[in-house]
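Co-fold these.
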Amino acid sequence: MALLAGLLAWTAAALAQDGPKAGAEALRALVNALGTGGYSQTSDQISALAATGDPSVAPVLQALADGDLYVREADGAVFIAARAGKIYRLRDPLSGQDAGEAGRKDIDKIKVNNSLRRAIRAALGALTLQAGDPGQRLAAAQNLFKTRDPEALESLDAALAKESDPGVRAAMAEARAALVLLAPPDLSAGLAAVATIAARGDREALTLLKEAAAGQGEVAAAAARAAGDLSQILQVWDLGQNIWYGISLGSVLLLAAIGLSITFGVMGVINMAHGEMVMIGAYTTFAVQELIRTSAPWLFDYSLTFAIPLAFLISGTVGIAIERSVIRWLYGRPLETLLATWGLSLILQQAVRSIFGATNREVGNPSWMSGAFELGQLTITYNRMWIIAFALFVFALLMFVLRQTPLGLQMRAVTQNRQMASAMGIRTPWIDALTFGLGSGIAGIAGVALSQIGNVSPNLGQGYIIDSFMVVVFGGVGNLWGTLVGAFSLGVANKFLEPFAGAVLGKILVLVLIILFIQRYPRGLFAQKGRAVEA
Amino acid sequence: MTRVAQTLRRAGAALAVGSVLAFAPAAQAEETIKVGILHSLSGTMAISETTLKDAMLMLIDEQNKKGGLLGKKLEAVVVDPASNWPLFAEKARELISVNKVAAVFGCWTSVSRKSVLPVFEELNSLLFYPVQYEGEESSRNVFYTGAAPNQQAIPAVDYLAAQEGVERWVLAGTDYVYPRTTNKILETYLKDKGVKAEDILINYTPFGHADWQTIVADIKKFASQGKKTAVVSTINGDANVPFYKELANQGIKAEDIPVVAFSVGEEELAGIDTAPLVGHLAAWNYFMSVESEANDEFIAKWQAYIKNPKRVTNDPMEAHFIGFNMWVKAVEKAGTTDPDAVIDAIVGVAVPNLSGGYASMMPNHHITKPVLIGEIQDNGQFEIVYETPGLVVGDEWSDFLPDSKVLLSDWRKPLNCGNFNTATGKCGGQGS
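Predicted complex below.
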């Protein structure tokens, strides 16, 4: 160990003294050293490489962090390797030039673990502060804020003096403030650091300020004041976060329940197989993505656009088939309907299990649905945001169909007064089938969206069935607006209870509240009035 | 009602006669040793257990190709307890009393094991249980080939503390017996090591929990207090996929907050895009990426048997591999499949495991295992970053719980006791 460290120090020193050619060779020797020894040696080798301060080292370290660095068994030379079919293409890590190819058995991957990745990140932070790409400089400044390596102060000051991009400049100023905060050179620098950190306004800033407040003197007092103010602001953000999470959960509940509000709410069929319609939609998404992956990978980002109409058609068709074959014989017999549809749900689950297998299927997120962005102190994930928008869109679409189309008119006529509608020439059995198909198709669409946040397995539907019924009953059977309001209020209530009571107790409390509510208002939030209800 | 019952009974009798007639000549022609497989093929747990049923069928097939056992062919009897815990007990009774199986391989959840335990003890048969569990149990009729907490949870926590310098801990689990007991053990263990109570956050979620936004945000908040934080996850089953998706989307990287899981293996990762999860950890006693000849051979056989070159192997499959081979060896040693003889013969039996070593059956009916820590890779596999220097013996009664640390289990004569209290010197402490 000591010997190795000595050797590395010697090579680094030799590198500094000799000319460029010898320098390049010494650098190459340092890179090759990465291929020897275990994790703790690799960690020393990373610091030795970083100590050279040579910017050409940065891509080597990046490749190491990404797990692309391999060592050739024959001569111990280290290369960046990329898989090309059965062989690997090698590139020289320093110059980036092509270095031939190698078989799978000829090269070994250099293993990295989390602590090495952290060491690389810290090393890269200092090396890439002056990189050409502003994104890299920003990442370097943010890394420095986290690692708070006091030795980087000099290079940070140098970079700060040259920086022109305002965003990167701000990040660097924050990093600098974090570096000097705990041991400020003088009072004014300390106070300035407190102000810069306080302006950042997030939890990391609060932690830093609290640390600084533990000390003595004016800087500590200023930090304590700033920390007090900041924690109040953060509490307000927490409230905003709970509301956002509640809306997000509400949108998932709305999607799951909206199809049921047609089949159960409008038609009055207790459809226990509703969850399986959602599942069929999710599996349709999987099938579409599989097809795209194998035949047209460039279309992957549009996979959901194909999956949504297809899921509607498939789930809708299955729904119509169920209505025609089973449910239509059971109208007016809720107990039998319940049992029959429950049996159907088991049949559908086992069918999917036999076709697709019992294990989870991978449904990928298109790039525009991955990741998150920061809105103040809120982390808003794209998939949740799009799902909220999509849920509202589906709701609006359904409203439009029910209110503005002939089909919607006939549906409402049949559910309000079957005999009269029939006398007016509406073919009521077919309207029943179409209504059930519409509800099932909407459930299928919900499955496409839900496949983006949960897992796609044969049991997917079971997780949503109870929640769906809860939303529809709470909102008021037969009223779409009730379903909307019910879903969002249940979502928000759940998310406000969760931080106090925990996820398990929170869910129980919500159920208890609903039971109490239904006791008082048996018809839910938006009770339907009029003769149709009494009949 | 009575008429229906009569008709049913008649139909049942006819069927029974029919099956006896159908099978009688075969039974005369060739006597077989029956092996029961008790894994859910439908319902919630089918997702995990179906694979184990296939693995057992493969192992039995292999053994028959080698000439069977004691000169007889093995015959698999597969039943489906449908993820229904009381049905597990019924099906176990059916396997033992009706099908007369020599041993049963099965169960996944602890609650299913607890449900069949009295049946195996009453009818004196053998159960090989292949999944990691919470410990605090030792039965004469059950062989625990999965990991006890000291073979998985404790080494994982030690690794995080030593290698990652973790000082703050989030213990997140699904709300049932395995996570609760494991977290109780871990909490005591961490506190004994000097971790303060305010540096431990324990969080439980219901089965199939799908909305992880609040909890992931809480973890982020808990981790932003300056000290290095890690999540120890005993989250089980379907809830894992949305949990990892939320982690990835909220941008929690393994370098910042590593998550070490005890119930996430290669099979579970098959449903997730693992690129954003590189570096998160799992602790098991076997990974598909283990480099050994035995493992290469096993993977090749499995993929050929299941006719899918992409199918993965996992830890409970290795546990069945070890358990089955131990049973075969014990039966050969005893010269009979009689449960009492096999129970006496199996203690001390050692068979190769898949990571290039040997597993031995200990007197407490647990086995020796190496403990491996792996980091998730972008191809859905694990890269092993740590391996215990030696084999770890499964500890049935945890040393970190006050009630159970005085207990020990030894099923050899003369002690022959699963919960011997070393303080009072009597057999029969709490539990059993």
